[in-house]
Amino acid sequence: MPKPRIWLIILSATALIAASRWAKAEPDTWQLRGGYWEQVHGAPATTQLAAPDEMLDRAEQYVSGRQYLGAKRLLVLWIKNHPKHPLRDRAVFLLGQANFGLDDRVASFYNFDEILDLYPDSKLFNSALQREYDIADDFLNGHKRKFLGLAIFGMEDEAVEMLYRIQQRSPGSPLAEKALLRTGDYYYRDAQFDLASDVYAVFVKTYPRSPEAPTVRLRQAFSYYAQFRGLRFDVTPIIDAREQLLNIVAQDPKLAEEEKIGPVIARIDETFARKLLLTGDYYLRVHQPAASAYMWRFLKQTYPKSEAASVASQKLARLPQWALNQPPPPPSSAGYAPSTAPVSDAR
Predict the structure, then answer these.
(1) 29-33 and 36-40: which strand pairing?
(2) Most exposed of 55, 144, 268, 305 (fewest Cβ within 10 Å)?
(3) Other residues' Cβ atoms within 10 Å of the Cβ of residue 316
(4) pLDDT tens digits along 137-167
(5) What's the predicted TM-score (pTM) here?
(6) What are 144's strand-pairing partners?
């Protein structure tokens, strides 16, 4: 065997021995601690920054290329092997994007939520918050969760909870304002007017200077109005609606004109008038004509131009004289009377 090959073998053996010793020694690495990079002695080789950076870059390319399954496999493996790596927030964020692309919105939400929980100082915090809003918005727009490959489960309640969490994470922020408004609008369009009015009331109180505040006040009034179930039920909802609409007329006349609030208030007043007429009928049925006279007189006094006022005049003409001799109701500008009237059948 020629001499040069002997030296080649010796050099190869020496290199192998040195490599084995290097592996046992475990090279130093750098870790981000308290905003500063610190050298860590004897750290495992898997914590080096070069390989994870390359892997995450590749995973990001997969996500950009819509190769979501390949990206997810790579990221799950990376996260498993790097539980405390300084770039873990980036890996979790990319995993959330991959799960979103795979139409697993719930898993995606939890990925972004992990960033908000564990990495509040991350540069990806706001992006994760926005993606959570996007997921909640998708669910409220009708996107369903899959089961056995079939999109069959609605997630509206969970979406509302997601929006609430967004508000908790960033109170007072534009996204928190947007999340609260989105919640109210969902309830409004879903005809859950009691919840819509409550959410809108919170919005107006929390963001009184928001450019959306006038529209929110209007929807709040209509939410009150929609809760009125009929003349034989409580009229508190339309009392609240009328008060809110009058405030809008006083504060924003242009909006009131555009939305034709005046006719709405007129319809509410006509409803009040018919309610007073019906209340007077009730007192007459239970043999309390004095109370009927009180109600019908108040009706004529408060809503003299209503159709119910002319009917009340006819009913008053048929009452006994002793009932008409009772004291008249005091002048009022409230727009509606209490549901009870002085009752006295003394002749």
Answers:
(1) antiparallel
(2) 305
(3) 18
(4) 999 988 777 666 656 676 788 999 999 999 9
(5) 0.72
(6) 154
